[in-house]
Amino acid sequence: MSKLKPGSDVVAAKPDSNFLREQFDGHTPSLGKELPRCLEVENLSLSYTRGKKALNSINLYIAKQRVTAFIGPSGCGKSSLLRCFNRMNDLIDDCVIEGAIRLEGEDIYQKSVEVAELRRRVGMVFQKPNPFPKTVYENVAYGLRIQGLRSKRKLDEIVEESLVAAALWDEVKD
Fold first, then answer.
1. CA atoms 43, 49, 50, 54: torsion sign
2. Binning pLDDT at 50, 70 and 90, where does residue 33 land?
3. What is the per-residue DSSP string for 10-69?
4. How would DSSP label each residue in 98-118?
5. CA-to-CA distance for 100 and 63, rounded, in angstroms?
6. How is residue 2 annotated by DSSP?
7. ∠ CA(66), CA(71), CA(76), 5° rounding?
8. 28-37, 106-115, 162-171: segment of lowest average pLDDT
9. What is the C-alpha to C-alpha distance for residues 113 and 23, in angstroms, rounded to an integer?
């Protein structure tokens, strides 16, 4: 079994490795000192239909206030692992998850965890755009609304500022 090579907040794999199907020590380098942990994964395994393992005995931690990238070849388990962090795999039939994931010490798979609140705290940036089947305005305003912002004036202001910053306002303002 080959070991994964953690780098400066980048977990990478050689093209011929099984990336997240293999266990590694979970050490996140931090310039000689250990940073406070935000997310801890302990002995995590994930299987899809017919027992096909996508992840096997993963152990790692992610430090607070750092950006961590998972890099590896297609099909090696990056997305499967990331979907575990905000329980998106709950939406996949026949997905079986074993092990523990703790966000700031709390097991996110406890029955008492409110999944919508977890997803407010743990977001994902997808490789390909994944907009809701709504207007551009509604897609930009979505995060603000689920955080409780109701003022139409404030929503309009923030949506416009965001679209201007993304150089999209002139394309969609009508």
1. negative
2. low
3. EEE--TTS-GGGS--------TTSPPPEEEEEEEEEEE-GGG-EEEEEEEEEEETT---E
4. EEEEEETTEETTSTTS-HHHH
5. 17
6. P
7. 130
8. 28-37
9. 27
User: What phi, psi does 75 have (nearest 5°)?
Assistant: 85, 10
Contact in structure between 131 and 110 (CB atoms under 8 Å): no
C-beta separation of 67 from 39 below 8 A: no
Six-digit token string for 113 = 């965890």
Handedness of CA 14, 18, 24, 28 (dihedral sign): positive
Identity of the residue numbered 114: E
Q: Work out the mean pLDDT of the chain and round it to a whole number.
A: 80
Q: Judge whether 80 and 55 are in contact, CB under 8 Å.
A: yes
Widest pairwise Cα distance in the chain: 57
CA–CA distance, 72 with 37 (Å, rounded to integer): 23
pLDDT at 26: 47
Structural domain boundaries in the chain: 5-121, 136-172
Closest-CA residue to 100 (of 55, 56, 60, 44) = 44
Q: Is 12 exposed, middle or buried (0-12, 13-18, 19+ CB in 10 A)?
A: middle
Residue 33, CA atoms < 13 Å, CB-side half-sphere: 3
Tell me yes or no: is domain 5-121 CATH 3.40.50.300.
yes
